[in-house]
Amino acid sequence: MATVSDTIGGHLVHGMGIAMEAPTWPAITPDEAAAVLARFPTVGRIEGLRWHSPRPFSAATLIDTTHGAVVLKRHDRRVRDVAGLVEEHRFIAHLTEAGTPVPAVLRTADGASVVALGDWTYELHGQGAGHDLYRDRPSWTPFRSRDHAYAAGVALARLHQASVGYDAPARGVQPLVASFGILPVADPLAAAEAYVAARPALGAFLAGRAWRRELAALFAASGVGLATILADQPPLWTHNDWHPSNLLWSDDGTVETVFDFGLADRSCAVHDLAIAIERTAIAWLRLGQGADDAIADPPAARSLIAGYASVLPLGPGAIDAVVRLLPLVHLEFAMSEVAYFAGILGDTASASLAWDGYLLGHADWFRSAPGRDFLARLGAGGGAR
């Protein structure tokens, strides 16, 4: 595994649960940042590394320079190679041209948006406008208020409007992407088998487990007829990781900037809306802590939908599609997490938690009494704020 000397004492990142943990990918050092930023002619001299992100799948730091603040992000090349990052940057460029407020992707003297050094790839972004109100909170963090949920729904709809016309194909096989190749297929188990076959580390982890039977049970319980519903949904490149810590906020509580397109891929609008609800209206980190009937927030979900519908009206069919998607919408990203933990990190404990706790456990919760109540209230409430 690639290593960097971690001279940033005490830096911790979000773990798989509530506790903070030592980082898998050490914090970016000042010397490392200087070596990368030297390739970017529009960036001034470094004045200091102000903050290190607690996100666990990469390393990122906010850097003050004489020409303003920038965000440097470093990836292991097995997670994001140059081609993988360029896929994201092309989508960001389209959104920028369409008027979506996203941080600028900065380029080197030779016009590249990615720097590859040894086992690492780097990308550099301008600092987006707005307040990073949720930056130290885990990804599965509820909104602070119903107004924030509504504003996030508005911003998501506007992003979907801007995405129309971007017709790049779905992303290639790589870890940590919320792809959309299993649920829209008439035989989702066969599609899941193909997904596993394309990821040898995932297949090796699942060997000896009754994973086909486990997925078949999920599809039988929550996936019947889903492919038919999704067939009517226009394809669209989507964000796929819509939670409040990927948004920058204005003083009046609206969304000022959207960032972190690492999970973006070609899916459809209702899939992205379902992910947004799943990420923000259910406190998953409290699952199994003795109050599973109290982890969901239907009013927050309805506020998010209402904000979305204020820009792009949602008919009963779209609401039904979102509700039908919710129990399984996390499926492919959870599988990609298993591949990441088992294949790149060799962390079988976290891979097991991703499979048993996230993939199976979240789907099981939706079949519980509180989960069924959440879905019923969401369907009945529609876009009511």
TrEMBL record:
UniProt-recorded name of the protein: Ser/Thr protein kinase RdoA (MazF antagonist)
Molecular function in Gene Ontology: homoserine kinase activity
Domain Aminoglycoside phosphotransferase: 62-291
Family note: Belongs to the pseudomonas-type ThrB family.
Keywords: Kinase, Transferase
One Pfam family matching this protein: APH
InterPro entries: Aminoglycoside_PTrfase, Kinase-like_dom_sf, Pseudomonas-type_ThrB
A single BP term in Gene Ontology: threonine biosynthetic process
Gene3D superfamilies: 3.90.1200.10
